[in-house]
Specification:
By secondary structure, the protein is mainly beta. The protein is built from one helix and 23 strands. The strands form seven sheets. It has a six-stranded mixed beta sheet, with no helix packed on it. Strands 5-4-13-14 form a four-stranded antiparallel beta sheet, with no helix packed on it. A four-stranded antiparallel beta sheet has the order 20-19-22-23, with no helix packed on it.
């Protein structure tokens, strides 16, 4: 009973938060991927209760932080609608499985996944705990074109998460060819105004060349070889983030994940959504695939998991399973659930818990 009441309280708190705020009125960037080769993606989120025509917006970059408005390298978004509290995933248009060099394709889930071998010694690579390290296999003798297998891995599939593919040719439009030192922006319209007033959201800092990447206070990379997910309490974009004004990147507003982590795309939990379950986030965790179309669900957390519980939108318990041996990653077989929105609650030791929204698609 205690746990059910806590969940209901969380839902009611989200409703109250939504009712009191004047935010949640404009699109913002909810996800970012800067991965291997051409694994580049942006996710947009609509925090409003009305569909929005994306053709009134553009995305792009200030290369190496360059700041005059005319140096913005942007591309207008297509005439697609983004649903209320919905997301829209933009992926660079590199889909030729035979592409090499600068044309290497985005991953589609069929890349060969196996133990990594040292190119020089031919020995298996092990991590600090003595476990073999796994990764996508590439042909070093053929411009690092990936090898393909017959097994599909959803968590390696960036191509399948796209709502649109943009910028197939660099010389025609290079808006999606961002690296860790490029300030990535969402703007209203097709060009940046002279006063920058139509800049809605920025990842990085306009007018600042960070070197390889913007960094945390501890010196860790934020934007190079990373995947970013906006925290659920963020309800609007940054507006202009400008070095000349002394601005810095608010990296605490993002969950920073490892290179080529696509699990944060295609769904976003935001306090603007009246159906949001909030996110207690005492202990960060990932859940994938999300949306879930089958029954196999993987949970990965930063601490040992004690129990996984799923509630429907009414707060009714629909699934519960204890986790043996208190491990940090587990794969569960869930029951056949109806299409819709659910809350997945992870319980840890000492009554710690974290919550995220789980989408079921059948």
């Amino acid at each position: 009973m205690k746990r059910i009441l806590l969940f209901v309280f969380t839902v009611l708190g989200a409703f109250q938060l939504f009712a009191q705020t004047t935010e949640c009125s404009e699109l913002f960037i909810s996800g970012y991927v800067e991965g291997y080769g051409n694994n580049r993606a942006l996710e947009l989120y609509n925090p409003t209760d009305a569909a929005i025509d994306l053709s009134g917006y553009s995305i792009g970059r200030f290369s190496n932080g360059d700041f005059p408005p005319n140096l913005f390298e942007g591309i207008q978004l297509p005439n697609d609608m983004i649903d209320p509290y919905g997301i829209y995933v933009i992926v660079i248009d590199k889909r030729d499985s035979l592409g090499t060099g600068f044309e290497v394709p985005v991953w589609n889930g069929y890349q060969l996944w196996d133990v990594l071998i040292d190119d020089v010694t031919g020995d298996t690579i092990f991590d600090l705990d003595g476990n073999p390290v796994y990764g996508v296999q590439y042909d070093p003798d053929n411009n690092n074109i990936p090898f393909y297998g017959n097994v599909y891995h959803e968590w390696l599939d960036l191509e399948g998460k796209a709502d649109v593919f943009l910028c197939p040719v660099y010389a025609v439009n290079n808006a999606m060819y961002f690296n860790g030192n490029d300030a990535v922006c969402l703007i209203k319209g097709t060009e940046v105004m002279q006063d920058y007033s139509n800049v809605i959201d920025v990842i990085g800092v306009v007018g600042e060349d960070p070197g390889d990447s913007w960094e945390t206070s501890e010196g860790g990379w934020i934007t190079k070889d990373k995947s970013l997910t906006r925290n659920s309490n963020i309800k609007e974009g940054t507006g202009l983030v400008f070095a000349a004004l002394g601005d810095t990147m608010a990296y605490a507003d993002w969950e920073i994940s490892f290179k080529n982590d696509f699990s944060g795309l295609t769904t976003h939990n935001c306090a603007c959504d009246p159906l949001s379950v909030g996110e207690i986030n005492q202990i960060p965790f990932k859940v994938f695939p999300n949306p879930l179309s089958g029954n196999e669900l993987t949970i990965e957390a930063e601490e040992a998991i004690e129990e996984v519980v799923i509630y429907n939108i009414l707060g009714e318990l629909v699934f519960s399973q204890k986790v043996d041996n208190f491990i940090q990653q587990t794969t569960l077989n869930t029951p056949d659930l109806n299409t819709g929105i659910y809350a997945i609650v992870i319980y840890f030791e000492n009554d710690s818990q974290s919550v995220k929204k789980l989408m079921i698609e059948k």
